[in-house]
Write a structure and sequence with these properties.
By secondary structure, the protein is mainly β. It has helices spanning 123-132, 167-170; strands at 11-15, 21-26, 30-35, 53-55, 58-60, 72-74, 84-86, 98-103, 106-107, 138-143, 152-154, 162-164, 173-181. Strand 1 (11-15) and strand 2 (21-26) form a beta hairpin.
Length: 196
């Protein structure tokens, strides 16, 4: 005997652009009934878009500690969760003008790099490898305790959302370095060459 009774509710699951896997149910309109993965607000790789920094569910653009220089700006000032973009795009023709912007107390969702070289187990080697590779956009280093001479190095070619590291949750320390392009100031006019 086949039960032909109508279903009690209509449901579907959708993988959202912010990284959430949500279950929807029809209740006089579609409504979210469950976040299936149930990770914290900042644990999703795209919650704050590319280069966005998530802190307690709030998104911002990364900045250098104790500096008023801006290396990143929002893609859309009204919707910061869409992510950030470099103020100056990275140019492989000017690799001598690349630098790594150190972000303190920041973690990333991944530290596993199957392409990493075995000798890249310390933080300095990790940073140098990123600066030598133009396609590298960041150097993420995960270590335990205070020993930065041994850990996991990840050199992504695309940077997704970052998050403030909560040591009591993650139980590891990490370093984050974003590659930025330094713009050289235009040469100042030489007053001795003027025809006065």
């Amino acid at each position: 005997l086949i039960d032909l009774a109508p279903p009690r509710s209509l449901q579907y699951m959708r993988f959202e652009t912010d990284g959430h896997l949500r279950l929807y149910e029809w209740q006089n309109g579609w409504a979210v009934v469950q976040d299936v993965l149930g990770a914290g607000d900042c644990s999703y790789p795209t919650v704050c878009g590319q280069y966005g920094l998530c802190n307690n569910g709030q998104c911002s653009c990364p900045s250098e500690d104790n500096s008023n220089l801006a290396y990143f700006r929002p893609v859309d000032n009204r919707r910061i969760n869409l992510g950030c973009m470099p103020v100056t795009p990275i140019s492989c023709a000017s690799m001598q003008d690349h630098k790594l912007l150190a972000l303190s107390n920041v973690s990333y969702f991944n530290y596993v790099d199957s392409r990493a070289l075995p000798q890249m187990i310390d933080e300095e080697s990790c940073k140098k490898a990123c600066l030598r590779n133009c396609s590298c956009k960041a150097a993420f280093f995960q270590y335990f305790g205070n020993n930065t001479s041994q850990g996991s190095c990840y050199l992504p070619t695309q940077v997704f959302s970052l998050q403030v590291n909560q040591l009591e949750v993650t139980h590891y320390s990490s370093s984050a370095y974003l590659k930025v392009q330094i713009t050289q100031p235009p040469p100042s006019p030489n007053p001795s060459n003027s025809n006065g």
